[in-house]
Design goal:
The chain is an alpha/beta fold. It folds into two domains: 15-33 and 292-389, Aspartate Aminotransferase, domain 1, CATH 3.90.1150; 49-289, Type I PLP-dependent aspartate aminotransferase-like (Major domain) (Aspartate Aminotransferase, domain 2, 3-Layer(aba) Sandwich), CATH 3.40.640. It contains 13 helices and 17 strands. It has helices spanning 36-39, 48-58, 71-82, 95-112, 133-139, 142-145, 163-169, 193-206, 257-260, 276-289, 294-315, 338-347, 370-389, and strands spanning 15-19, 22-25, 30-33, 88-92, 120-124, 155-158, 174-179, 182-183, 189-190, 209-213, 237-240, 251-255, 320-326, 329-334, 350-351, 353-355, 359-362. The protein has a seven-stranded mixed beta sheet with strand order 4-12-11-10-7-5-6, with helices on both faces. Strands 1-2-3-15 form a four-stranded mixed beta sheet. The chain has a four-stranded antiparallel beta sheet with strand order 13-14-17-16, with helices on one face. A hairpin with a 4-residue loop joins strand 2 (22-25) and strand 3. It starts with 14 loop residues before the first strand and ends in a 6-residue tail after the last helix. The chain binds pyridoxal-5'-phosphate. Pyridoxal-5'-phosphate binds next to helix 4.
């Protein structure tokens, strides 16, 4: 019996090492990694710049707590602000913690501005914001809430991307609107740009805050630094994590000065958040992602993948119902159970991630090349053929 809580249905694979877009198991078998540890290893495995940075920092200092200055944390915060809408950053160890910090910022802003009754956030059906008590309440999914007592109060869920439904949900207690610009776990559902623009305008009209959960869609994943940029809007608060550390755990809550200045000493904190190891690696990730031409590369690879997937969807319409997503955050809505396609791909040496709404997520590392995209497409083609003919074996 495993000593671990049985909270995961694990694949049975384990990996000895990785290199770029590939992982290798104990026997040396190679896997094309289009999962990136769920959108985390943004620069692939064992990226030389990240490896060098981590080794160098490991020999200097690992942890000092936030009771002291951490120059690399200041630097990472400054770089994130310079590259986004934000004026202030607070670092965390995970996505859920970044979303929690975002929720606290939204509530605190209204408290500090004489409206403590404004503490509720409007959220969307199918959303995913993490696994802490507040973030499962924000996500509102019954399967995540069941058995854990009364959900944390303060979230009002609406269905669909319907601006009138959002307007109807706003009350004198509403602090803001929380959403992912592309719903990741919920099935790679793209939020229409127009809807994001309408939400921004509505927030301005009502004096409430727009809170973006870019834990999955951020740090270049969609071909922009953050996905909301595609809609040419800015949020007031944003949660980031996953790709930010390239595999080292780090998250961040970003905010405008109007919001950030209300988080005075004592209102929030984290023992580990933004420690020297994490922020050294975070800075190294930004060295690459913010390099001129890098995001264009992501967008180009995303386009190549999307075009090839569209071809596969035509050819295998019995298997692929729809191609979704943006950049290197793609989804295949399946006709058979999505886990069947995930398994058929795994058997053919390719790793993907199932999502809600019967979708298979394709999350290649952002450094992926044309040959690897083409290999991925050929593997999906072979898996679809096998699923159609009922042949589960190797190609
Ligand atoms: C993964 C994810 C989270 C939670 O991040 P953790 O690091 O697992 O806590 C929150 N929001 C979104 C959109 C995510 O994809």
């Amino acid at each position: 019996m495993s000593a671990l809580l049985p909270t995961y249905a694990r694949s049975g694979l384990s990996f000895a090492r990785g290199e770029g877009a590939f992982l290798f198991d104990e026997s040396g078998e190679r896997y094309l990694d289009f999962s990136s540890g769920i959108a985390v290893t943004a620069l692939g495995h064992a990226h030389p710049h990240l490896v060098e940075t981590l080794k160098t920092q490991a020999e200097k200092v690992w942890h000092v707590s936030n009771l002291h200055g951490i120059p690399d944390q200041e630097r990472l915060g400054r770089r994130l602000c310079d590259a986004t809408f934000a004026d202030r950053v607070s670092f965390t160890n995970s996505g859920a913690e970044a979303v929690e910090a975002a929720i606290k910022c939204a509530r605190r802003y209204h408290f500090a501005n004489g409206a403590p009754e404004r503490y509720r956030l409007i959220t969307f059906e199918g959303a995913f914001h993490g696994r802490t008590l507040a973030t499962i309440a924000a996500g509102g999914q019954a399967k995540h809430l069941e058995g854990f007592g009364p959900p944390v109060d303060g979230f009002d869920q609406v269905t669909g991307f319907d601006i009138d439904a959002v307007k109807d949900a706003i009350t004198g207690e509403t602090a803001g609107i929380l959403l992912e610009p592309i719903m990741g776990e919920g099935g790679m559902r793209e939020v229409p740009y127009r809807f994001l623009q309408d939400l921004r305008a509505l927030c301005d009209e009502e004096g409430i805050l727009l809170v973006a959960d870019e834990v999955q869609s951020g740090v270049g994943r969609t071909g922009r630094f953050y996905a909301h940029e595609w809609a040419e809007i800015t949020p007031d608060i944003m949660a980031s994590a996953k790709g930010l550390g390239g595999g080292f755990p780090i998250g961040a809550c970003l905010a405008t000065e109007a919001v950030g200045q209300t988080m005075v000493p004592g209102t929030h904190g984290s023992t580990f958040g933004g420690n020297p190891l994490a922020v050294a690696v975070g800075n190294a990730v930004l060295d690459i992602v913010l390099e001129p031409g890098f995001l264009e590369h992501v967008a180009q690879m995303g386009l190549r993948l999307k075009q090839q997937l569209a071809g596969l969807a035509d050819e295998h319409s019995e298997i692929i119902a729809e191609v979704r997503g943006q950049g290197l955050m793609m989804g295949l809505k399946c006709k058979p159970e999505n886990t069947k396609l995930v398994a058929a791909l795994r058997e053919r040496g390719m790793l993907t991630v199932p999502a809600g709404d019967n979708v298979v997520r394709l999350l290649p590392p952002l450094i992926v090349g044309e040959d690897e995209i083409d290999l991925g497409t050929r593997t999906i083609d072979a898996a679809c053929v096998a699923l159609k003919t009922g042949d589960a074996g190797h190609v």
